[in-house]
From TrEMBL:
Coiled-coil regions, chain positions: none
Designated gene of the protein: yajQ
Pfam family, one: YajQ
UniProt similarity note: Belongs to the YajQ family.
Name of the protein: Nucleotide-binding protein SAMEA1982600_02416
The organism of origin for this protein: Bordetella ansorpii
Keywords: Nucleotide-binding
GO cellular component: cytosol
């Protein structure tokens, strides 16, 4: 039976490249000359360090631009509130990996509501869709692209 997996993943290599490019852009921008502004990447967490909250907002725009240039969907970003003190300001941006349980249930409910002849099951942070016809699976892909989910969805492991 044909099947495919629905995942939400970010390529670690592309993320590293995007953060490096954002740091390079910071070093060349006139409004950041002489400041201690930088992006730091640990795992899938990007920490922005600047002297003020205003600069953090500008840095977030730079990061979004660099992520989209590297084909990383910015909907996967979870931006925390900025922390300000006398020494400067910090902000943590988490790059979400995988489909959360609540979001997966929402996707399964949307598939069931469409009354298509497919089965869907949640496997950890993935969603497996199985059907008898390839056309049904492609219709489910189109349906999932239209759903209003705050995550970028990728379809992989398509088996016939």
């Amino acid at each position: 039976m044909p099947s495919f997996d629905v995942v939400s993943e970010v390529d670690k290599h592309e993320l590293t490249n995007a953060v490096d490019q954002a740091n390079r852009e910071l070093s060349t921008r006139f409004d950041f000359k002489g400041t201690k502004a930088s992006f730091e990447l640990e795992g899938y967490d990007v920490t922005q360090v600047a002297e003020s909250a205003f600069q953090l907002k500008q840095m977030l725009d730079i990061l979004r631009g660099r992520l989209s240039a590297r084909n990383i969907d910015v909907r996967c970003m979870d931006v925390a509130d900025p922390l300000e003190n006398l020494g400067g300001a910090r902000q943590k941006v988490t790059i979400k990996q995988g489909i959360e349980q609540a979001t997966a249930k929402k996707l399964v409910a949307a598939i069931k509501a469409s009354k298509m002849k497919v089965e869907s099951q949640i496997n950890g942070d993935k969603l497996r869709i199985t059907g008898k016809k390839r056309d049904d699976l492609q219709a489910v892909m189109a349906l999932l692209r239209k759903t209003d989910v705050d995550l970028p969805l990728q379809f992989e492991n398509f088996r016939d």
